[in-house]
Design brief:
This protein has two helices and ten strands, in the order βββββαβαββββ. It has one domain: 2-Layer Sandwich (60s Ribosomal Protein L30, Chain: A). The protein has helices at residues 67-80, 109-124; strands spanning 6-10, 15-18, 22-29, 33-39, 44-50, 88-94, 128-133, 139-145, 149-154, 159-161. The chain is an alpha+beta fold. A hairpin with a 4-residue loop joins β4 and β5. A five-stranded mixed sheet has the order 1-3-8-9-10, with no helix packed on it. Belongs to the CheD family. Pfam families: CheD.
């Protein structure tokens, strides 16, 4: 008998938790960041598709859209599902500069997203075991349980794993 594995597709500004063998996936990562936080001692992981570095107000209707509220949502949700803070680890990809000619800081969303994700993970003291960020190419990512492999495929067809 073949074991069924859950597959969860996460849209832009969305997040989800996986607590069974399966895969979390998100596509369309240009300046956005696809962040996975997982408990390395359990079958438990979550992913958010972060669009912007910070929420314009404290309690947005879609907290996963922003690095500050999305990471807080992911952390709290994992803890509610029984995660151990001491065993949390992170991997993420994205943060491209999709429009190379634009040099205005306000338009460098990819860099700002990566910086915000990094700062939030540091604040929560969650070790980062892998990051594939920057450049000027879009990405699609998959995170698989129980292997904890994070696969990145670029719009150019390159693949890497961390």
């Amino acid at each position: 008998m073949v074991e069924e594995k859950e597959q969860i597709r996460i849209g832009i500004a969305e997040g989800a938790i996986l607590a069974t063998p399966g895969t979390l996936m998100t596509a369309g990562l240009g300046s956005c960041v696809g962040l996975v936080i997982y408990d390395d001692s359990r079958l438990l992981a979550g992913m958010v598709h972060i669009m912007l570095p910070e929420s314009p107000h404290g309690r947005p209707s879609h907290p996963q859209k922003y690095a500050d509220t999305g990471i807080a949502w992911l952390y709290e949700t994992l803890m509610e599902h029984g995660a151990s803070h001491a065993h949390l680890r992170a991997k993420y990809a994205g943060g491209s500069q999709m429009f190379q000619a634009l040099q205005m800081e306000a338009l460098r969303i990819g860099e700002r997203n990566v910086r915000a994700v990094s700062m939030q993970l540091e604040r929560l003291r969650i070790p980062v075991l892998g990051a594939d960020v920057g450049g000027n190419v879009g990405r699609t990512v998959w995170f698989e349980l129980p292997s904890r492999h994070y696969l990145i495929r670029t719009a150019r067809g390159d693949e890497r794993q961390m």
